[in-house]
Amino acid sequence: MKLLEGKKALIFGVANKNSIAWGIAQALHAHGCELGFSYGFQQLERRVRPLAAELGVEFVEECNIEDDDKITAVFQKAADHFGKIDILIHAIAHAKREDLTGTFVDTSRDGFQLAMDVSVYSLVALTRAAVPLMADGGSILSLTYYGAEKAVPHYNVMGVAKAALEASTRYLAADLGPQNIRVNAISAGPIKTLSAAGIAGFRKILKYTEERAPLRRNVTQEEVGKTAIWLCSDLSSGVTGEVVYVDAGYNILGMPEPPEKWL
Hints:
The structure is a single chain. The protein is α/β, with parallel strands linked by helices. It has one domain (8-249): Rossmann fold, CATH 3.40.50. Helices cover 39% and strands 14% of the residues. The chain has a 7-stranded parallel sheet with strand order 3-2-1-4-5-6-7, sandwiched between helices. α1 (20-30) packs across α7 (221-232), α3 (68-82) packs parallel to α4 and α4 packs parallel to α5 (156-176).
């Protein structure tokens, strides 16, 4: 049974085949959802269009999410193409590379503002633009990480941005609940993506998580995609304002050390 037959989704943040957003796109497509893609800047087009073609996606538009006029223009095109949308996927995050290598205390003012604008306010801006196209209700989904709750080496300003993203999820869910629009976030474990490559020591984070998570492994794009299907379908019709963990259980640990080392 296809859980999203007849639904239409607009996905922001597909960058290449390693993107978590791509895993979500594949999962939604497999369950009958019609998709539209939006990418952040022109250089990404050559990577995104072949992926769109692979899933038969016809709506592919560039959008600078730091510009409200550009956001308005993309959603007008989406209205013309789809008529309405049921699902909005926000898979956007960015910070200056130098702010993800040193210590948080050395974060620059403009670097802080950039991370918050691109990684957090964009969710608010895209949601505001999407609401008029969700007259029958809908599901809005963003991506976060455990570094929003606990200090993770070199995650720095992005951890603060993700904390703000999670808070924004709750406030948006409270605002839009009366319109039957649900807003949730997936907190995925570390996955090799283009964005993750900018975090100093990311390979060590992957290895550390793999050794200590209860499932003794890292998670995959496909597993995040499966959870996205649940959160975007009627199976989760009573769920909103939540952060759902897909991290092999890592977030439950208070003392993450492999038990076998204690024996």
